[in-house]
Predict the 3D structure of the following.
Amino acid sequence: MAAADADAAEVERLYELGERLSSAKDKSQHAADYEAIISSVKGQSVKAKQLAAQLIPRFFRSFPALAARAMEAMFDLVDMEELATRIQAIRGFPLLAKDAEFVSKIADILGQLLASEENVERDAVHKALMSLIRQDVKSSLQPLFKHVESGSEIREKVICFLKDKVFPVKAELLKPQAEMERYITDLIKKSVLDVTGLEFKLFMDFLRSLSIFGDSAPRESFQELIEIIQAQADLDAQFNVSDIDHIERWTSCMYMALPIFMRGGSSSKFLNYFVKQIVPVFDKIPEEKKLDLLKTVAASSPYSTAQDARQLLPSVVQLLKKYMPGKKVDDINHNYVECLLYTFHHLAHKTPNTTNSLCGYKIVTGQPSDRLGEDFSEHHKDFTERKVTAVAAEPLSKEEGGHCQIDPGHTNDIPNQFFFLLSPSPSSSSTVKACLPLTGTEETVRAASKRLTQGMADFNKAISSAKTEEEKTKIKSDQHKSTMTMRAYNNILAMAQPLRAKSPLFIGDKKITLSWMEQPKKPAATTAGGKRPQPATNGNTPASKKGRGEGAARNQLVNRAFEGLSRGGRGSGRGRGRGGRGRGWGYR
C-alpha cells in the first residue's frame, strides 16, 4: 500500500511540474522543474516514467543546456522492460530533433529498435523514424545506411524499412530533387559493397527510378550505374571456374545491367571479361551455368558497340564450331546454338566486314577494314567452303559429316548450302568442297522439330484425361517446355538460313525473339480488304512490328536472373577475395 501511495505521489508531483512549466511565460526560469522531470526516469514508478516520457520531449526545446541529459534519459526509457514506457518514449523522439547531431543519434537508436519483436512497438518505431526523416532527411538516413554498410545485426531490418517505408515516398522526401537524389545515391553506393543478390537488386531498382538516372539523363549517369554493377560482379578479379558464386554473380549482374545497356551504358567491361576470362575455360564450367552465361551474352549483344563486337566475334565463332554438328544427329543443344547464332548475327550486323577476315566472307563496306585484298581463303574453308581431299572412286552421301570423300567430277551437283565448317581429310589427292555443319544443324533441328510437333498434339488430350491436378500440372509443365523448345528450333532455322550466302545479311533487328523471352503479340487478323501482314520467318512478330515492347522482355530477364538470389542469406558466400565481401548470390 505504501508503494502504491508513493507511486501515486510521484505521478502527482510530475503533473504539477508539467503544469507549472506549461503556464510559465519564461520557462528558462524553471530549469529545476525540468531537471526534476529528467531525474524521475531513475525512480521506481513505472507510471511516473511513462509520464516523464511525455513531459521530457514536450519541454525539450526550452532547455538547451539540459538537452544532453534529457536525451540520455530518453535513451534510458527505450531500454525499460515495460512495453508501454518504451512506446511512449519512441513516440516522443521526433520532438527532440532540434539539430543534426541529435537527429543522427535518434535515428541510430530508432534504427536499432527496428529489431523489436512487438508489432505495436515496431509500428511506433516506423512512425517515429518517418517523422524524423521528414524533418531532416540527410541526418536521418545517414545512420540508417551506416547500419547496412557496416553489416550490423539489424541491417536486414533497416533494408526492409527503407524498401517498405522510405523508397515509396521518395518524391516527397528527396527535395531539392537533384541534390537529395545525389546524396542518397552516394549512400547506396557505399552500402552495396556487401549485400545479397536480392538486396543489390532492390537498391539498383531504386537508383534506376531516380530522375538523375532517368531517360533524359546524360550518358555519364548510365555509366555510373554500370560501374556500380561492375564492382559487384568482381570484374577485376581473376575468374575461378570452381567459384560458383562468382559465376552466378557475373551472370546476375549482367542481366541487371541489360536495361542500362539499352539506354547507352557500356557493356565493354563485361564482354571483355567474358572473352578473356570465361571463354578459355568454358568447357570446365558446370553445364547448368553455361546456358546462363550464354543467355546473358546473347541478350546483351544487340547493345554492344562495333568495337566490342569485333572483340567478341572470334569467341562466338569458336563456340559455334563446338556446338553445331557437322552431320545430322539425333538432337543438338538447341539452347546453346540459339544463343550463339543470335549473338553472332547481332555482333556481325554491327561490324559485318569483320567476318571477312574471320569467316572468309566477301562483304564490301568501302572501309579499309574490309581487307578485301588479303587472302582469307583458309578462314573461308573453315567457315563456309572448307576444302577437303577427295578419292574419285568413292561416292558421298550429302548427309555425311567429318572427313567427306567426294568425287571431284560431281562437286557441281552438290548445292552450295551443303558446304560449311568441315575438317580436311587426312589424306590428299584432290580438293573439293565439304559438307556443311550448318546444314547438319538444320537437318537435325527440322527432324527434331517434326518429332516434337507430333508429340505436342497429344498434350491437350493428356490434360483432358488427367485424373489429378498434380498430373495436369506436370503435363502443362512438359507442354510449356516443348513450346519453348519449338521456339528455339524455329529461331535456329530462321538464323541459319541467311548465313549460306557469300555476303550474308546479318539479323540486327527485332525479327528474332529469343525463345525464353516474352514473345510479342501476333498481329491482329485483318478485315476484308485489309492488307495482310508479312509472315515472320521464325514464327514471331515481323520486323516491322514492335510487339509488346522491350520493357516486358527486359523485366523478365532481370527477374529471371534474381529468382532465389538470397539463397544462403547473409551467412553464405562471405569472402570474395575482398576482405570478406559477399553474402552469397545463389543464381538459379
